[in-house]
Predict the structure.
Amino acid sequence: MNLQQLESRRVQALAQVFLEAARHVPPDKADWKPDPKAKSAHEIVSHLAKANDLFLAVLRGEPPSGDTAPDTEGKSYAETLKAFERSSQELAEAIASLPDERLGERIELPWGQTWKLPQVIAAASGHIAYHWGQIGYLQTLWGDTTDYHLIPESSAD
């Protein structure tokens, strides 16, 4: 298994457990924030969908927008979950299809840093995992202590 296959599977597995947790957010809690400066579950999911699209653009050699600010205005939580699901699937497919010859490329990122392509590939799954933890924390704050964090065996292969 090469790096691209490994990271594609990580994105798929982490997206699956993230979605499992995010789908258990009660409708009356999707836009709840523990503090005005915090992000709601809806905002976290929106940000992740936009960030996945940014990673996807970078991998395709397209100019990324650089805008990953949550955009929930006029969008239902269900629509935002679908956007994340679509972006995760497309990102996993793009990572898996990268040829080995591209692994030495250096990528200019919208925030001014230049990373080698393997760093970009690995950052995608790490970013999903980071925000998965935020969803879990929000759930804990409103009293939901169910473990939505278990990766199904079929995803861990």
Remarks:
- The two ends are 11 Å apart (CA to CA).
- DSSP finds five helices and two strands in the chain.
- The beta strands are 106-108, 114-116.
- The domain at 3-156 is CATH 1.20.120.450 (Four Helix Bundle (Hemerythrin (Met), subunit A)).
